Amino acid sequence: MSGHPTSKIDLRTVGGTWSYYEPKYKIWFVKKCFDACNETKDTKEDYSKKDLKTLLKELEKAQKKNETAKYRIIGLSFETRPDFITKKEVDELRKLGATKIELGVQSIYDDILKLNKRGHLSKETIEATKLLKEAGFKVAYQLMLNLPGSTPKKDIQMFKEIFSNENYKPDHIKIYPCALVKEAPLYKEYLKGNYKPYTEKTLIETIKTIKKDIPRYVRIERIIRDIPSNLIIKGGSKISNLRQYIEEQSRKEGWQCNCIRCREIKDLNTKESIYLFKEEYSASNGKEVFLTFENNSRTHLYGLLRLRIDKNQGMIRELHVYGQTASISEKGSHTQHKGLGIKLVKEAEKITKNNNLKKIAVISGIGVRDYYRKKLGYKLKDGYMIKSF
Questions:
Q1: N or C: less crowded end of the chain, CB within 10 Å?
Q2: Residue after which a domain boundary falls, among 263, 288, 319
């Protein structure tokens, strides 16, 4: 991104269903991403002629190099479908170095999923969420408003259930209103009178209601897809900066969304006192502990840690300190490289010990392994950074 240091790279692979691609291609593709960050000279090679074992060894070598490279991949995420997540797929994603998975959930109501021919039901979303959290991944849901068969009331109720039902409770969400374009089969249904899109006003009011009730442990990453407004026939919104528009509306109306993105400190340089907050909640047959550093009014978020407690160990699923990004070699910005991350990890270790557990694991990005190794005494084992007590 323009103006930001490039020594810390949070890499996202988007478009399509990642899990659908053939195994050799996936390993080769990710290895090439690491090669680029490692500044490894490109060689023309035919990955299809190599066996999986050879390709995996080459990937591991590139990952090892990236642990201390100038440009480090500190996070790696993939988009896929809930029905493609199995224990085998989870293992393969971890070998690639993934730390976050985006699921194309769209809806949790089976009647809507069937009507829209999604090819999966809510039970697949529940199982995928559980498998991913147990493995330490951050879980993101892509959710759609205004789908055929839904209503504003049902959309609002869906979000309430997602964050009250222990089977769901994702860490991140993207809100994608259904937008009608001529190329989509849905356009024919619209012409027949079988589908009536929300008006822009109805859509905005629906999103406002949803945002007013979002838990503090959730980050709303996006609110609209990048579809050119001239292609949208009806439905959705032609306001490309819809998030910003709603934020301006909320200020006028005197309320603030409590999601992570709306509270991040960003580049605000303030000398206010900050405090440690802890929130616990049950999700996917486990206990989640959400630790944050915030100001007293909890309007400015400085850092967070997600800790999952199960019967065997504590698992740090996410550690993030906000503020102006500082490069790896810098002493620190206003918030980064000031010790907040270490304090959060130490608190997570304390909580893990208090639960009578003997070890804690971190689903660390490849480029952050050296941080856990040198700063906190963790050791690499089976793709995770581990500390035993």
A1: N
A2: 263
Which run of H or E residues covers position 19? none
The answer on 278 and 255 residing in a single domain is: no
Domain assignment present for residue 370? The answer is: yes
Query: DSSP H helical segments within 18-105, as ranges?
Result: 23-38, 52-66, 87-96
Q: Is 173 within 8 Å of 108 (Cβ atoms)?
A: no
Residues 6+ apart with CB under 8 A from 202: 152
Q: Assess contact for 138 and 317: CB atoms under 8 A.
A: yes
On whether both 163 and 242 belong to a single domain, the answer is: yes
124 plus 159 within the same structural domain: yes
What letter would DSSP give residue 41? P
Q: Contact at 8 Å (CB) between 283 and 133?
A: yes
pLDDT confidence band for 159 (50 / 70 / 90): very high
Number of domains in the chain: 2
How many CA atoms, within 13 angstroms, populate the side-chain half-sphere of residue 298? 15
Lowest mean pLDDT among 131-140, 157-166, 270-279, 282-291: 270-279
- CA atoms of 184 and 263, how far apart (whole Å): 37
CA distance 123 to 132: 14
C-beta atoms surrounding 8 within 10 Å: 19
Mark which of 217, 232, 263 sits at the end of a domain: 263
Query: What is the pTM for the complete model shown?
Result: 0.93
Structure tokens at 273: 């006192």
What 8-state DSSP symbol labels residue 264? Answer: B
